[in-house]
Amino acid sequence: MSQEIQVEVRQSVKPQATIAKLILGLIFDFIGMLSYIIPGIAESLDVIWAPISGMLLVAMYKGTTGKVAGVIGTLEELIPFTDIIPTFTITWLYEYFQDKKNK
Predict the structure, then answer these.
(1) What pLDDT was estimated at residue 9?
(2) Which spans in the chain are helix H?
(3) Is the per-residue pLDDT at 6 higher than 60?
(4) Is residue 40 part of a domain?
(5) For residues 91, 97, 98 and 100, what is the CA-based torsion angle, rounded to 10 degrees?
(6) What global pTM score does this model have?
(7) pLDDT (average), residues 15-33
(8) CB within 8 A of 53, min separation 6: which ones?
(9) Which of 29, 2, 43 lies closest to 87 in space, CA to CA?
């Protein structure tokens, strides 16, 4: 009588990488909100920052989460008066708590 043992190996999230993503996200959200600090000038810079923001989100968060966040982040920067939405931080929260939920 032999018994089979199945072992599931999961990739664990390193706390340092998680905190680093949060800190980077907070910095990038602050950059996106600069149009509220410097009215007039920074609003024109949003046109440049929008695609950069989207690409950073795609690079930071892999898979569907990154792609959806990248599109939302780009649109959020392009649409007037939506810069206050912290897209990077919301994406980090989604990824962090989604990972906790799946454990």
Answers:
(1) 46
(2) 15-32, 34-37, 41-60, 63-78, 87-102
(3) no
(4) yes
(5) 150
(6) 0.77
(7) 88
(8) 28, 32, 73, 74, 76, 77, 87, 88
(9) 29
Query: How many folded domains does the chain comprise?
Result: 1
Q: Would residue 84 count as lying in a domain?
A: yes
Burial group, residue 97, by CB count within 10 angstroms (0-12, 13-18, 19+) = exposed
Range of the domain at 53: 15-102
Write down the residue that tokens 């930071």 correspond to. Answer: 60
* CA distance linking residue 5 with residue 94, whole number of Å: 33
pLDDT at 13 over 90: no
Calculate ∠ Cα 52-54-55, nearest 5°.
Answer: 65
Q: Would 7 be classed as within a structural domain?
A: no
Q: Under a CB-based contact definition with an 8 Å cutoff, are residues 87 and 72 in contact?
A: yes
Q: For Cα atoms 29, 32, 33, give the angle at the middle one, nearest 5 degrees.
A: 90
Residue 3 in domain: no
